[in-house]
Amino acid sequence: STCTFNAFENEVNVAFLLREFGHCIELVPLSLGNGRPGLPGHGLSEEQRGFVRRFDPSDMELDCMGFFIAKFQKRKKEKRAEALTLS
């Protein structure tokens, strides 16, 4: 998580991590009912954008100072091998 709503510190970093380390980590959905999906045009697919949550201070409905959440988990050994084969 970050305490910023800057896409270059959030979505762009998530896309970088997935691109560089996607063979050993994966982005997983969050079980949060609030927040907004990630911003388009910063390297994440539509599905991946739905897995992250952003809380923008300009969103009066959220009433917050601004932060971003993404959840990763380590891939199981078999999935790591499969991801390396596909890349």
Explain how this protein is built.
With 87 residues, this protein is of the alpha+beta class. The protein is 31% helix and 16% strand. It has three helices and four strands. It has helices at residues 11-21, 46-51, 77-86, and strands spanning 25-28, 53-55, 67-69, 71-74. The strands form two sheets. A two-stranded antiparallel ribbon has the order 1-4. Strands 2-3 form a two-stranded antiparallel sheet. The longest helix has 11 residues, at 11-21. The chain is elongated.
Outline the fold blueprint.
Layout: H1 11-21, E1 25-28, H2 46-51, E2 53-55, E3 67-69, E4 71-74, H3 77-86
Antiparallel strand pairs: 1-4, 2-3
User: How many strands appear in the DSSP assignment?
Assistant: 4
The tally of helices reads 3
**Major sheet description:** 2 strands, antiparallel
Structural class label: alpha+beta
- Please tell me how large the radius of gyration is: 14 Å
Mean pLDDT: 88
- Which geometry do the CA atoms define? elongated
Indicate the percent of residues in helices.
25-40%
Order of helical and strand elements: HEHEEEH
Catalogue the unreliable spans: none
Termini, distance in Å?
27 Å
Beta fraction = 15-25%
Strand order of the largest sheet: 1-4
Task: Briefly say what this structure is.
The protein has 87 residues and is α+β, with helices and mostly antiparallel strands. The protein contains 3 helices and 4 strands, in the order αβαβββα.
